[in-house]
Amino acid sequence: MPKPTRKSLIQSVERALNILEVVRDSTKSVRAIDIARAVGLSPAAANNIVRTLFIRGYLTQDDHGHYLLGGKSYLLGGAADSWGDLRSVAREPMLGVSKKSKSLCFLGVECQSQLIAVSIAEGNGPLIVPRNQDWLEQLHCTAAGKILLAAMPPDRYDDFKQCVPLQRFTNKTITDWQELDSEINAVRDKGFALCRDESVFGLCSLGVPVMDSARQHVVAALAVVFSSYYLNDDYQDQMVRLLLDAAATICTNLK
């Protein structure tokens, strides 16, 4: 199948998707005028699309007439979740990592050159499915992301380099492709990834690959996130062993 290009995009569809993404990314309901400003459309043009999405159930309104994602969007998102089995199998190992490390445990996959969180275990708290995917553009600056980049076939990695800019989040974020290439090669050699202050200053993450049941392909990355204050060689070794054990358990239980 040919890869889509900017020329192949249908403007009205792209505008509708932009509107849905604006509402999705907002922490509260959004006024129609603010939607129009965010997507760069006139109020009249934006309102035509918003009204269509509202009538079809992809947007809804609160008591003030401001917009939220509607039930149809929820159903659409649920249908796109193809990682239910992985999430189920990873549940207990992730909770174990979280409890032993007293840190956040993150299970991520790569989808269309973005980092998707399949589930998160927060410290000693419950395992959750994250709603706000704040790390979509952070494959290059998170441990889970680097694991997934290291697992990409060469042609996929080349495509990633062609279409994805290396966004800077802190002064430690790698934004040079040669430097990132060297980092990814090192991840392949070591079998784990380390990020320190690269996506959020003051936070470290360590990640390892999760293999499929045949141990042939990487299906996900398992990571732990903790304060940079705690990072030293002994702590790093301890966390990597903990992650590798959990990843092996997940692999064994996958069908």
UniProtKB/TrEMBL annotation:
Residues forming coiled coils: none
**UniProt entry tagged with the keyword DNA-binding:** yes
Signal sequence, renumbered to the chain: none
Q: Which residues form the IclR-ED domain?
A: 72-255
Keywords linked to the UniProt accession = DNA-binding, Transcription, Transcription regulation
According to the UniProt entry, its GO molecular function terms are: DNA binding; DNA-binding transcription factor activity
Q: Does the keyword Signal apply?
A: no
Please report the name of this protein according to its UniProt entry: DNA-binding IclR family transcriptional regulator
Provenance organism: Oligosphaera ethanolica
